Amino acid sequence: MAEKIVITIARQYGSGGREIGEKVARALGIKHYDENLITLAAREGNLDETVASKADESAANSLLYTLALGSNFFGSAMNFGYKPPLNDKLFLLQSDVIRRAAEEGSCVIIGRCADYVLRDHPRRLSVFVYGDLPHRKARVMERHEGLTEAQAIDLINKTDRRRSSYYNFYTGNKWGKYDNYHLAVNSSLLGIDKTAEMIADAAKLLMEKE
Amino acid sequence: MAEKIVITIARQYGSGGREIGEKVARALGIKHYDENLITLAAREGNLDETVASKADESAANSLLYTLALGSNFFGSAMNFGYKPPLNDKLFLLQSDVIRRAAEEGSCVIIGRCADYVLRDHPRRLSVFVYGDLPHRKARVMERHEGLTEAQAIDLINKTDRRRSSYYNFYTGNKWGKYDNYHLAVNSSLLGIDKTAEMIADAAKLLMEKE
Within 10 Å of residue A172's Cβ, how many Cβ atoms? Predict the structure, then answer.
């Protein structure tokens, strides 16, 4: 790899964006950072391996935590027992973590307006992952046993509204609008694995460029 | 190729979408149909090889014709000396040509709301190609010598407004909004050739599916 690359992934809830991001990182042999890790690192002020492994473990359960803790929270920071209001300081700390991560080496960064934070990065692929509602609903219900269809849809709508407000507030852009991204992809077309393969292929083309 | 595939390409003016569509078709060894061909076939009532070759030749010059003929036209039908108003009959004829083309074999279809017309096609990849304004402007000025920067921007804005109105009117959807497409891609990131390669790769993944 000639030069460091960063792949930022924004995603609709239930689209599989986080999992896709992890698979892209694995396919390219680079690190990945998700929302939880970034928030944790922002609060603890470091991004070392200990934090990374800790966050990786907790990430798997984060959505169950989110549900268990109810919907009156802002962002995934709640997963760590912290309830920030629309918090500029946390956003700045997270942005700093994101910039440091991208400086350290090639990586995939999921969520937290990383596409905006790293808008001047010389070799970046900014991705938005979305999906058809039936697929997203099925995915959310599969992950959270006992959720009714109506509850799954409600969770999807609320989570996306929260992501959208957060993004729009901090970037001044519009979440999901194509011109914020280099690539917007519907994961329902190819499924999680092949969508990840497609994004990894695009990243390889970007690495070959020039 | 197990099953017929169709790739529909909608695009911003100056993004290179038409050229990308042609390259995708070439990479996959399938036919491509652009706006001009579809409009011509709709008017002549057939889609045989004669028409195809005729339209392919004229396509190269169509943008110059468009400019020469001024901006008071609707869609590329003008390239053939025909001035339809917002014309439902022509839209229906074009839609019919598009459906017949997709039935005949795997193909790439550029423009004319093909993503909407073929929305029930079982194996379709719906693409929106856009680009950064400086790249689009440069592309338009390169193609049309003598155009000032301001004129190029004006031409881009007017053409996109026309495409957008046309699409929104006939589909009831919103041109460029991600959920109309499976894949939206900024051609400025990778350039024409590599963007075509990326879309062809995605199409191959779709062909492999199941």
Answer: 8
Q: CA nearest A8: which of A124, A100, A101?
A: A124
For residue A200, the chain B residue with the least C-alpha distance is B198
Average pLDDT, chain A: 83
| Residues of A within an 8 Å Cβ radius of B | 125, 128, 130, 176-179, 181-186, 189-191, 194, 197-198, 201-202, 205-206, 208-209
Stretch (H or E) spanning A140 = helix A133-143
Rounded Cα gap, residues A187 and A15, in angstroms: 6
Sign of the dihedral through C-alpha A110, B130, B89, B99:
negative
**pLDDT-flagged residues of chain B (< 70):** 1-2, 45-86
pLDDT in tens, A64-88: 334 333 433 344 444 444 444 447 8
Domains and CATH numbers, chain A: 6-208 (3.40.50.300)
Taking the CA atoms of A98, A100, A103 and A108 in sequence, report the sign of the dihedral they define. negative
pLDDT band at A39 (very low <50, low <70, confident <90, very high): confident
pLDDT in tens, A138-193: 999 999 989 999 999 999 999 999 999 999 999 999 999 988 999 999 999 999 99
Q: Indicate the SS3 state at residue B175.
A: coil
Q: Is B29 exposed, middle or buried (CB count within 10 Å of its CB: 0-12, 13-18, 19+)?
A: exposed
Compute chain A's Rg from CA coordinates.
Answer: 16
Long-range pairs, A169-172, Cβ under 8 A, ≥24:
A169/A86, A170/A91, A170/A113, A170/A116, A171/A113, A171/A116
Instruction: Determine the angle formed by the axes of helices A187-208 and B187-208, rounding to 10 degrees.
Output: 130
Residues of A whose CB is below 8 A from B198: 198, 201-202, 205
Can you list the alpha helix ranges (DSSP code H) found in chain B?
Answer: 17-28, 35-44, 49-59, 62-68, 88-104, 114-117, 133-143, 149-171, 187-208
CA angle B17, A192, B114 (to 5 degrees): 30
H or E segment to which residue B126 belongs: strand B124-130
pLDDT tens digits, A181-196: 999 999 999 999 999 9
Phi, psi (deg, nearest 5) at residue B183: -150, 125
